[in-house]
């Protein structure tokens, strides 16, 4: 049996080796990248731990009592020595952490930009649709204006008549405005007259109750006097409202409650200002001087 040569062994190894596929190559690249990234992360963690320890030591030293000038110079000298002795952290040009961070930020920026582009595209389409709609409306108005101008030229007499009617309606509108203004002034004047009459009635009723109270053996206190005035004025208001309201004479009768109003009714009856009847209690109504 012939001895196996080095060439034969090499050919045997090559023949038994599995072919490298694209997926296998991608897996190897991913594994290599992951290991490099893990190594860079560990190295960065160690540097951060060293920096944190140095920061803690510096804070502890600064929290001590203040040093004199000579000791402070010595501390600064030792600090500079320690700084120059330790090389700062300098990432490599092909730092995998920086590359991965940049790739992630770039991916997020691309996604946000894509969303913004899609939103702007949708808004642009909506704007185009609105512009088209407005252009169609403008074209309709232009066509309507042409038809209207043609109609005006065909019927000049009719247009003149319409202008006269429009002028007449404006004159009527002006006249109505004057009438409304006059009516408002009349209402204001009537309101002033009504207020004056109310104040006059209030003074008359006040004097009447004062005289009636003076004739009594026992005078009323202030609260009872005010209550008598309020009830008497309320009775007069009810009689006036029933007189001017639209309805039959039956609805113009006002029932008189028992109380200080009865004295007012007696005075009005003696002066022939009211009608009186006894139905469901004492009922009165004002005489209709010119209302019928």
Automatic annotation (TrEMBL):
Keywords: Coiled coil. It comes from the Eukaryota. Residues 1-11 have a biased composition (Basic and acidic residues). Residues 1-20 are annotated as: Disordered. Residues 117-179 form a coiled coil. This is Uncharacterized protein. It comes from Clavispora lusitaniae (strain ATCC 42720) (Yeast). The lineage of its organism: Eukaryota, Fungi, Dikarya, Ascomycota, Saccharomycotina.
